[in-house]
User: What shape does this take?
Amino acid sequence: MKTLAFGAFTLALLTGSAAAAQDQNFGPAIPGVCVYHHDRLLAQSTAGQAVQAGMQRLQQEVQAELAPYEQFIQSEGQQLQQGRGTIPQADFATREQALATRYQEARNLAQTREGELRYTQAMQLQQIAQATDPIVLALYNERGCGLLLSRDGVMRVNPTMDLTEAAIQRVNAALPTLSFSRMPVPAQQPAQ
Assistant: This one.
């Protein structure tokens, strides 16, 4: 959930910084040195945007699934707290145990769903990376790069040295969108 908020922030930051970068005067292009910004590709490619939208949809589904648990726990907890002195001891103990059981079920389900969301997002990002790697390699060769730097570690760069825009265009053509559902986390095999 933090990842999506960070992704939205990154997208806004990249959009703003791209406009600001157009107005700046950069130094000369250095032959053989190229730069690539993977986070920008994820934020601006159609597949990356599909992952962000799909993850938001899945998070909403999980929240809807967990809402009845939360409502029951809150309601029953308040009723037990208010009726502590008036509810017969045996009934109180039974309801308190049922509340604890329901709380544990909700907690387990929330942990399971959170793991599924992380796994689903990782699998979708891996799919984008698998499509992107040969594209970046082809651009590297086409542009005669001898050194490819991550844009994360570069404060300023001449835009002619940046492979990112071309990579976004090619990824959009190769992987126009992604459609997916929540994926269960595979069971880990015991170590042999």
Helices lie at 2-22, 38-44, 46-82, 89-142, 164-174. The first helix runs from residue 2 to 22. DSSP finds five helices and two strands in the chain. Confidence is low (pLDDT under 50) at residues 1-21.
